[in-house]
């Protein structure tokens, strides 16, 4: 599953059959699994499906370093959509976890770090590790109810393999550009994947990114995401190009073309 992800939702049912036993309309499945599949396809595009040879350079935690090879994903701007409990978060990312546990890719543990002021405050600073059923791999979920810059300065920061900003609305929030600049200064090899609700918002996001006062590269320009959520969000807009679909479009930036 991990090394050969599907191309689009048409192929998803066959690919996910070992995990999702119950039939469901593709719209429901896309709502449940758009984040997992967007992550998996982005890792494929960034050539991160197999563990690179370089260890993570930062680990400020005071506990002893684990010998495990970790794939660390920062989900920045996370909120209730990514789950309000460990159980709920594992459910949101269930197909990603199943795929991760199905292959020999060199990673031992998948680390999901949910970061953002809209993360449940009661979960802030907590971490939970569990085995992935049917495999010798594990998943660790970390919650940080704070800005990415605050998390960076904290004691539990671990360098990410990739950063995901789902439906970020870069065009609408002034905090994003300095955050991206800080991300690329601290983690120059890390891809930053940004999704948008529709193509017009993706264009607006890209225009804002072009205003970054630093050199950066486009790993890929804004384009349609094959694993958008097919269920439309409620909106007052009725024009076809203004309807809202989670993760409709995506783009990826980094400080360099070189991955970890």
Verbal overview:
- With 260 residues, this protein is an alpha/beta fold.
- The chain has a single domain (11-48, 68-231, 239-254), classed as Rossmann fold, CATH 3.40.50.
- It has helices spanning 9-16, 26-45, 86-92, 94-101, 148-152, 176-186, 199-209; strands spanning 70-76, 109-115, 127-131, 138-144, 162-165, 192-196, 217-224, 232-233, 244-245, 249-254.
- A hairpin with a 6-residue loop joins β3 and β4.
- The chain is globular, with a radius of gyration of 17 Å.
- It starts with 8 loop residues before the first helix and ends in a 6-residue tail after the last strand.
- The model has no long low-confidence stretch (mean pLDDT 91).
Concise account of the structure shown:
The protein is built from 7 helices and 10 strands. The protein is α/β, with parallel strands linked by helices and 260 residues long.
**Mean pLDDT metric:** 91
Secondary-structure element pattern, one letter each: HHEHHEEEHEHEHEEEE
Based on DSSP secondary structure assignment, what is the total number of beta strands?
10
CATH architecture call: 3-Layer(aba) Sandwich
Q: What is the assembly state of the chains in this entry?
A: single chain
Percent helix range? 25-40%
The number of domains: 1
User: Major sheet: order of its strands?
Assistant: 3-4-2-1-5-6-10-7
Do you know the CATH topology? Rossmann fold
Radius of gyration, in angstroms, nearest whole number: 17 Å
How would you characterize the largest beta sheet? 8 strands, mixed
- Roughly what fraction of the amino acids lie in strands? 15-25%
CATH class: Alpha Beta
Structural class: alpha/beta
Number of alpha- plus pi-helical segments: 7
Q: Low-confidence parts lasting 5 or more residues at pLDDT below 50?
A: none
- Gross morphology: globular
The end-to-end distance, rounded to whole angstroms, is: 23 Å
């Amino acid at each position: 599953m991990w090394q050969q992800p599907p191309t689009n939702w048409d192929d998803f049912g066959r690919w996910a059959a070992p995990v999702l036993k119950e039939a469901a309309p593709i719209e429901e499945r896309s709502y449940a699994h758009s984040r997992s599949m967007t992550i998996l396809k982005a890792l494929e595009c960034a050539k991160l499906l197999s563990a690179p040879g370089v260890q993570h350079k930062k680990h400020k935690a005071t506990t002893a370093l684990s010998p495990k090879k970790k794939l660390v994903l920062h989900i920045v701007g996370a909120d209730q959509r990514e789950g309000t409990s460990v159980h709920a978060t594992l459910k949101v990312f269930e197909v990603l976890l199943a795929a991760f546990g199905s292959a020999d890719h060199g990673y031992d543990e998948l680390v999901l770090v949910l970061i953002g002021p809209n993360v449940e405050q009661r979960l802030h600073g907590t971490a939970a590790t569990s085995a992935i059923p049917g495999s010798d791999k594990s998943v660790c979920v970390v919650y940080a109810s704070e800005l990415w810059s605050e998390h960076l300065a904290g004691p539990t920061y671990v360098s990410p393999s990739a950063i995901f900003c789902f439906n970020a609305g870069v065009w609408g929030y002034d905090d994003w550009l300095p955050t991206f600049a800080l991300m690329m200064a601290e983690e120059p090899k890390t891809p930053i994947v940004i999704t948008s609700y529709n193509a017009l918002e993706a264009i607006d996001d890209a225009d804002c990114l072009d205003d970054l006062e630093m050199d950066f590269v486009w790993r890929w320009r804004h384009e349609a995401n094959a694993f958008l959520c097919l269920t439309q969000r409620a909106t007052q807009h009725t024009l076809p190009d203004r309807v809202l679909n989670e993760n409709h479009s995506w783009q990826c930036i980094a400080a360099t073309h070189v991955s970890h």
